[in-house]
Design goal:
heterodimer; A: mainly alpha; 84% helix; B: mainly alpha; 68% helix
Chain lengths: 85, 232
């Protein structure tokens, strides 16, 4: 059981680093960047769940992954209305 | 080039540091003294099935009051800063329509999200989650409405009334604890009820409902002010 958890969290960490690399890659379109940084938060909340901290996992999922991603998209839609397309 | 090398060096140093921390980590085989006290006393003293909630709302209730105050101050200051650029009257915006998927989806999802948020903070003493998480979920419903229709009229006066009433009631319940029970923010001003049911753990469900409403109203009003501000 413990080995399974360890393998899962290692896999999650690798995917998290991959998503973070996608998020900081220059020249990508902004929606992709926002989505992949939301993915980092979502995977972090799964990690918290694996570490038996469901309360922290809920906060991370609600604020870090949900509200922040929504907010970035909201701001992006406002910025699009400005000078730069 | 030099800058990249520097960044690489910094990352390698951080990586070695964290790897050394991780390699030397061994989990405790038993709870420490404080943890043991909480784990063994929460159920019979406070009647809360979720120990984390008991710690946040009752044992460390003063810290939670401080957190709520910090959030209130942040929301007030954001309102003050953004009030300079508020739109006067109903200016017709030239934003494109939100699209069928978003507007239909928000009509379906917003009631469900609101229900989930209320569930999370009402059941805070039984299941993981609580006022802050539930409030954030409520605010994400408000954000979805704003995304679907940025010009939707919100009753911001109602949101302000909900926020200030719940904050006031939270402090009143805390002060009641001094006179009726053991101290400030003591949850035993109400009967503890039977362990594990929704009407249990004294005042914890009431306090967490108030916190959830307050946090949800604060986040929503912040988002609302952000969307009402004129871009320049």
């Amino acid at each position: 059981m413990s080995e399974l958890l360890l393998a899962m969290s290692l896999l999650l960490s690798v995917v998290m680093v991959g998503a973070a690399l996608v998020a900081i890659q220059p020249g990508r379109s902004l929606p992709i960047i926002i989505l992949s940084s939301g993915l980092v938060s979502l995977l972090a909340s799964v990690q918290y769940l694996l570490l038996a901290a469901p309360d922290v996992a809920m906060t991370e999922a609600a604020i870090g992954s949900g509200l922040t991603t929504f907010l970035f998209f909201f701001v992006l839609s406002r910025v699009r209305g400005g000078d730069r397309g | 080039m030099v800058r990249h090398l520097f960044v690489l060096l910094l990352l390698t140093a951080l990586g070695t540091l964290f790897f050394a921390l991780q390699a030397g980590f061994s989990p405790d085989s038993e709870l420490n003294q404080v943890g043991r006290y909480y784990a063994s006393h929460t159920a019979q003293d406070l009647g809360a099935a979720n120990i984390v909630t008991a710690i946040i709302v009752t044992y460390r209730g003063l810290d939670t009051l401080g957190e709520v105050t910090v959030l209130f101050l942040a929301s007030t200051i954001i309102g003050m800063v953004l009030s300079k650029g508020m739109q006067k009257g109903g200016k017709v915006s030239d934003l494109p329509p939100a699209g069928e998927l978003l507007s239909t989806g928000s009509r379906l999802l917003v009631p469900l999200i609101l229900l989930l948020g209320c569930y999370v903070f009402i059941n805070g003493h039984l299941t993981p989650g609580g006022g802050f998480q539930g409030g954030a979920i409520l605010a994400s419903a408000a954000l979805m409405l704003l995304l679907a229709d940025p010009l939707r009229p919100f009753n911001s006066r109602f949101i302000a009334v909900v926020e200030s009433t719940s904050g006031l009631l939270y402090v009143v319940i805390g002060v009641l604890g001094i006179f009726v029970a053991g101290g400030f923010l003591d949850n035993r001003i109400l009967p503890l009820g039977s362990y594990g049911t929704i009407f249990s753990a004294g005042a914890i469900p009431i306090i967490y409902t108030l916190i959830g409403l307050k946090v949800g109203a604060e986040f929503s009003s912040m988002l609302l002010k952000l969307s009402k501000t004129e871009e320049r």
